[in-house]
């Protein structure tokens, strides 16, 4: 993939000259054919089309690749969060997030294409030179010098080839800098694309806000060197949770809760969990977590397969319905999807997206806050992640 006007013009002239030589050879075999003008026009248009595609191949590749990555991320977004309540996912914010995700991947892809094309072009040039040398009958004598055998050529073809070779040598002598400019431009584009990829890696590593790291060092220490009293303020903490069909969330939740217990101190924590006859592996995961708490000597009560109150035949009557919901409130957590948690916890709180919300959106859509937050006059603070949509 060559970049630069000089290289493109050389390629265009070379393609047109090759087409002209092809027409000369064809004209000798089809001198009396009426299709010769049509064939000449077709080959000329084909040569121009090829030269155009070659000239703008880098731009076309960049546009096609960017569009493909954007469409792929948008399809993934629609599969995970599509159909949610519109005001919680403004289109301009969605487009900004997609752009932030697309640009680094696009930069890495373009850098890979440039490097791969350079390697292929170098290998192809070497193979072509070896093939042409063998085709011309080149041999090596005892002194290590090349010995060539004469082969018969058509005089007209030789004159055309000599004229083309002379024109190319004269053009290289008159303008020796285009090749250098082309290399510098190629190198500059490669550095630019790699910079985009590295910036994406930097954003991936800096998704946490400073406030997220307040206790990180002490939590890490508490898990490396656990103590019964923990590393917090010795307050007694009661952890309560209800689950129903949450096998996708529980592994992460159990891991982070265990880390929290080490920080608070096993002697300072009581864990109470209720599971309401789930249809997946929720109960098994919680029972395994109960074994972990037992090994840590943490006071706990984990109830699984809870069917204490049967579901009433009809949910229309108020007392049976309320009585049932009191005991099976774990159903509430089922409507909150893991995708929404990731979106509001990590994506919208990333410093780039947070900057966009604060300085570009700047309160846009706040007039629709009534359905999320209540009356706007009673709102005094919003951190951007407190209003979660429900399915």
UniProtKB/TrEMBL annotation:
Tree of life domain: Eukaryota
Pfam family, one: CAP59_mtransfer
Kinase keyword on record: no
Keyword NADP: no
Keywords: Membrane, Transmembrane, Transmembrane helix
InterPro entries: Mannosyltransferase_CMT1
Residue runs in coiled coils: none
Annotated transmembrane regions: 35-54, 97-120, 184-204
Protein name: Glycosyltransferase family 69 protein
């Amino acid at each position: 993939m060559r970049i630069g006007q000089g290289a493109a013009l050389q390629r265009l002239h070379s393609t047109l000259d090759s087409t002209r030589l092809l027409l000369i050879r064809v004209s000798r075999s089809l001198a009396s054919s009426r299709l010769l003008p049509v064939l000449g026009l077709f080959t000329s248009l084909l040569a121009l089309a090829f030269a155009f595609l070659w000239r703008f191949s880098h731009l076309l590749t960049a546009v096609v690749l960017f569009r493909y990555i954007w469409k792929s991320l948008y399809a993934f977004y629609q599969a995970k969060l599509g159909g949610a309540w519109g005001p919680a996912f403004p289109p301009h914010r969605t487009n900004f997030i997609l752009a932030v995700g697309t640009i680094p991947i696009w930069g890495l892809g373009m850098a890979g294409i440039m490097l791969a094309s350079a390697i292929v072009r170098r290998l192809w040039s070497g193979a072509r030179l070896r093939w042409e040398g063998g085709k011309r009958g080149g041999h090596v004598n005892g002194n290590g010098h090349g010995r060539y055998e004469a082969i018969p050529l058509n005089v007209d073809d030789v004159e055309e080839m000599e004229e083309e070779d002379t024109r190319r040598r004269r053009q290289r002598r008159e303008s020796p800098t285009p090749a250098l400019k082309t290399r510098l431009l190629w190198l500059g584009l490669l550095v630019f694309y790699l910079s985009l990829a590295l910036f994406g890696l930097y954003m991936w590593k800096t998704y946490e806000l400073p406030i997220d790291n307040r206790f990180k060092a002490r939590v890490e220490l508490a898990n490396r060197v656990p103590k019964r009293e923990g590393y917090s303020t010795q307050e007694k903490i009661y952890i309560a949770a209800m689950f129903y069909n949450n096998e996708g969330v529980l592994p992460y939740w159990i891991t982070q809760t265990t880390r929290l217990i080490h920080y608070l101190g096993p002697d300072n924590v009581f864990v109470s969990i209720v599971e309401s006859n789930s249809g997946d592996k929720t109960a098994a995961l919680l029972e395994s977590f109960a074994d972990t708490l037992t090994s840590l000597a943490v006071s706990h009560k984990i109830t699984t397969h809870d069917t204490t109150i049967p579901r009433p035949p009809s949910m229309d009557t108020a007392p049976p319905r309320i009585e049932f919901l009191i005991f099976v409130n774990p159903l509430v957590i089922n409507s909150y999807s893991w995708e929404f948690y990731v979106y509001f916890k990590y994506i919208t709180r990333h410093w780039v997206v947070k900057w966009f919300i604060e300085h570009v959106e700047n309160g846009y859509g706040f007039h629709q806050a009534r359905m999320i937050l209540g009356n706007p006059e009673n709102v005094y603070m919003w951190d951007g992640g407190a209003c979660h949509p429900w399915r």
